[in-house]
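Minutes, project check-in

Agenda point 3 was the complex the collaborators sent over. CS summarized: two entities, 225 residues total, and the question is how they sit relative to each other. Sequences were read into the notes so everyone works from the same version.
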Amino acid sequence: AQSVAQPEDQVNVAEGNPLTVKCTYSVSGNPYLFWYVQYPNRGLQFLLKYITGDNLVKGSYGFEAEFNKSQTSFHLKKPSALVSDSALYFCAVRDQAGTALIFGKGTTLSVSS
Amino acid sequence: DTGVSQDPRHKITKRGQNVTFRCDPISEHNRLYWYRQTLGQGPEFLTYFQNEAQLEKSRLLSDRFSAERPKGSFSTLEIQRTEQGDSAMYLCASPGATDTQYFGPGTRLTVL
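CS then shared the predicted structure for the full assembly.
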């Protein structure tokens, strides 16, 4: 069965410092991996995805993620955090044959000034 | 703005009442998904349409839930005889040819 784990409920980082939000997955075959961000009382906004190709994927708002097949991970990163990055972040996966996304429980990112 | 709209944004109802939500996807996208998100959890898949055909349903979609997409454009999700456990955010997603699912703002349901 497909699954996604986000091992940290909350990540705290100071503004200007690099940030990492962790995600590991389990899927049969090649994974399609996604990161979304959710602000309070809002829907999910797409940040980036990995389907194939380069392991380092660049996305919106300066975020990037690194696909690591051997570690089955897809960690979200940003070199310099902003206070406005504070939000709830979701990692999601599906396999090539699937249609629906399987989401992790989410990680709350808090960036302090 | 993703181009996916949902109505209403908030719905408060009493237990036992029926409710209906609407989703208007991005116009040229023929696939449409419904998800449910409860507090502290990620979204969970409910059902999926390709044009007007409902192709997949999750085990979460009990017989009190019904979804339609009559003309392959907008979709409705109805919950009959609501229960307090139905309180959640209901999200609609519209994916394009690039496999990226774009989500609407959601309908937050509160069952009293």
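Noted in discussion: The CA atoms of residues 9 and 107 of chain B lie 4 Å apart.
Follow-up: revisit at the next meeting once the mutant set is ready.
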